[in-house]
Design goal:
single chain
């Protein structure tokens, strides 16, 4: 079960609060404090290939689009 579809089963437990609470306890995805899923791109929302230098918090794809506007120069 992926993190995006764990809530779909909650519709079945509308009138059963005890079962609903137990289901949420065991099936809710963890909130991450470290790793790749902690940070995401501020522009597009991707998780991987982050550029956090200079406080940019952009993925490499978005950085390539706006790098010259920010004042970065492409070498070679």
């Amino acid at each position: 079960m992926t993190a995006s579809d764990w809530r779909k089963a909650l519709k079945q437990f509308v009138r059963k609060p005890a079962i609903k609470a137990k289901y949420i306890k065991h099936n809710k995805p963890k909130t991450r404090t470290t790793g790749i899923t902690q940070k995401k791109c501020e522009k597009c929302g991707r998780y991987g290939a982050m550029i956090n230098s200079y406080g940019l918090n952009l993925c490499r794809h978005c950085f390539r689009e706006i790098a010259e506007e920010l004042g970065f120069k492409k070498y070679s």
